[in-house]
Amino acid sequence: MNKFINLFSFFFALFLSNIAFGVNSDLKNIKIDAELPAGNIIVDSIEDGVVKIQQDLRDSKQWFYWAFRVRGAQGRTITFDFTNKKGGGPVGVRGPVVSTDGGLTFSYPLDGKSKSDSFTYSFGQDDKDVLFYECYPYVRSDWDRFIKKHEKYLGSHIALETLCRSRKLADVPAARFGCINKTPKFRFLITARHHASETMGSFVLEGAAETFLGDDALGEWLRENAELMVVPFVDYDGAQAGDQGKGRRPHDHNRDYLQFIYPETKAITQWIATHANGSLHTFLDIHCPWIRAWENEKVYSPLKDPKILPDVKIEKRFSELLEKIQSGSMKYRAKNDIPFGVGWNSGKNHAQGWPAATWVGKTVKDLKIVRTFEIPFANADGTVVKPENCREFGRDIMKVVYLIASEEQ
Ligand SMILES: [Zn+2]
Fold first, then answer.
1. pLDDT in tens, 229-255
2. Which candidate, 76, 117, 75, places its Cα nearest to that of 96?
3. Of 36, 82, 212, 217, which has the fewest beta carbons less than 10 angstroms from its beta carbon?
4. Residues of each domain in the chain carrying CATH 2.60.40.3120
5. pLDDT in tens, 279-298
C-alpha cells in the first residue's frame, strides 16, 4: 500500500510540476518562423518561457520592422524579448499587430501592455497559428483585394498599369484613376513604399484613389477633370519580402533619383516624361516616420526646400485647408510640420542622393503641389492608427488637392 501511495505521489507530483512549469519550461514544440506575408525574423533562442528574437536588418542599417508566425503555442504564455534594443527596441507604441485568423483581421491586443523591446502574449486554446507584425501589413494581395473591390470601374474609371519589372522580375503594379480615357486637365501622382516597411502609406494611397470612384460631386469632378496615377509599392520586391527598405546599401529607393539603380524609380520618371508629357499638377509621396516619440506619433509633413517648391503660398494654403476640412479621425496639424532646415529635415539628409520629391520639384513642369507626408505607425496624437483612418486621411488630402486645382479652373 505504501508503495502504491509513493508511486501515486510521484505521478501526482509529476502532474503538478507539469501544470506549474509546463507552460513556460517546455517550448520545444513551438515553431517560430518568417513564413507569412512580408515575414522578417531571426530567432536567437527559445527557452524558459522566453523567446529571444530580433528583426532581420538584411541590407539596411538600424531599423525596426519584423513579422513572424507562431505555431503550436496554444494555451501557453510566452514572452518575446527583442535582443536588438538599439533605439529602445523595435516594438510599436501599441504593441504588436496580431492576427489569430490567418491574416484576415488584425488588432493591437497588447495596447498599453507591451514594452518597447518585449511583450508577453497568452495564446488561447485555439490559437494554433498566430501572426505578429510590427505594423499593419500591406502586400500585393492587399492591393489585389482593393482592385477587386472596385473591379466594376475597370476600364471606365480605373486603368491597371504595370510600372516596370522589378529587380526580381516581378511585374510592379500601378493604376490610373479618374479621367483615364481622355486627356485630363490635371494630373496627380501619389507614391508609397519608397521605404518598403512603411505600410501605412499604402492605406492612405487607397483612400486617395477611392475619392475618384465616389458617387458624389467630388468624385464626379475628379473623374471629369483629373487623372490620379498611384504606385502602391515603389520598392516592390522589398515590400513583398518584408525588408526594412529604409537605409539600404548603397542607398534606398528614396535616395535614388540621381543614380536610378532601381527599376521602379526610373520607371516613375519615365512615366512622367512620356504619359504625362513631363507635367504634373500634384505629387504626393507617403511615408511613415521612426517608430515612437516626438513627431513620430503625429501626422506631419517634412516641408521641402523652398528652392524646389513651385509656390510656397500654395504649400501654406494646402496645410491650412487640410487642417480645416479634414473629417477623418486621425488629425493633421500644420504646427507639427517640420520646416526645411530643422532637425533631420535638411539637405544633409539627401547626401546619398535625391528623394523623389526633390527630383519632381526640380524637373517636372507646371507643378503646383509637391509634398511628403509622414503617417505614424500606431499612435497619432492619441488616436489609434488603423487602415481605415489612414484611408480617411487619403480622402482628406485628395479633397485639398481638388480644392486647390478647382480654384485654377
Ligand atoms: Zn520613408
1. 999 999 999 999 999 999 999 999 999
2. 117
3. 217
4. 21-133
5. 999 999 999 999 999 999 99
Query: What whole-number distance in Å separates Cα of residue 72 and Cα of residue 128?
Result: 5
Query: Is the bond leading into 109 cis (omega within 30 degrees of zero)?
Result: no
Residue 3, amino acid: K
Query: Ligand 1 centroid vs 199 CA: distance in angstroms?
Result: 10
Q: How many CA atoms lie within 13 A of 297 on its CB side?
A: 12
Dist. CA 42 → ligand 1 center (Å): 23
- The CATH 3.40.630.10 portion of the chain extends over 140-407
Ligand 1 centre to CA of 192 (Å) is: 9
**296 CA from centroid of ligand 1 (Å):** 12
* 3-class DSSP state of 214: coil
Residue 13 binned pLDDT confidence (cut-offs 50, 70, 90): very low
155: three-class secondary structure by DSSP: coil
| CATH assignment of 21-133, among 2.60.40.3120, 3.40.50.1820, 3.90.1150.10, 3.90.1310.10 | 2.60.40.3120
Apex CA 222: angle with CA 217 and CA 223, to 5°? 100
